[in-house]
Design a protein that fits this description.
Elements: E1 16-18, E2 23-26, E3 36-37, E4 44-51, E5 54-61, E6 65-67, E7 76-78, E8 90-92, E9 96-100, E10 106-111, H1 112-118, E11 123-130, E12 136-140, E13 152-153, E14 156-159, H2 166-178, E15 185-192, E16 199-207, E17 221-225, H3 227-234, H4 241-255
Parallel strand pairs: 2-4, 11-16
Antiparallel strand pairs: 1-8, 2-3, 4-5, 6-7, 9-10, 11-14, 12-13, 12-17, 15-16
Amino acid sequence: MGPKGCTLTQTKASSVLVQEGRLAAVRENGPDSPLREAPASRSVRMWMTWDGAVPRWAAMVCQPSRFGPAGGASQRENPLASPCASPGIVWPMGELVERVDEQDQVLGVVDRAQAIRQGWLHRIATIVCRDEDGRFLVHRRPDDSSRFPGQYNWMLGGAADVGESYEEAAARELSEELGVHAAPRFVLKFLCAGAISPYWLGLHEVVITASVRPNVQEVAWHDWLTEPELESLVRQQEFVPDARDAFERYRDLSRADRPLS
């Protein structure tokens, strides 16, 4: 049950966005933590539930009850006592991310597609994979990718989920994209101008000792390249521009005798 007699509408991984909606309650510390009610909106309540360790969003639309002094004409909304009504307009949402500022401090939760359109800063976690010989894993993105189709990249990764640290996001992305379960080490973070929109990029690295199982939806081709081979590829036009920027920063740090763990 949701707050005050309203029925919870569970969503799947893509979540929902209700027009003029707002977050109303959240389980902050995992699936067994209590549902903490926040101030309700005019007609919508939204909150986050959990599927294992993965946050899921749920929402319902309530019809505010109105009341006023006995016999009086004045009325006001009482959202916390609102009986549930039929669902309002529900719009599909791709990814929920945390919007952050120039100091990487959280401002709120937004749709990633909207963040890109509006140029709002958010967090991206990336992973540099190396083998025991020090070679770098490089891949080509599928031709039907929504971002940088058919281009080469030396990093894996994606947007950090709501409430997720850079390190947690990197480990999740490594598992999703390569089928590798490991704890990538944080290396550096910088405010990336981005070829599409700006964001904070957290770069991690990990040494891969097991076989990889690339997700075909994310990786069309992959190979292990030496550093000279990678440097040559980075200069090619078909290389993701943001990844080129990250490589130059990583290389400069490496030349300052950064140890590889």
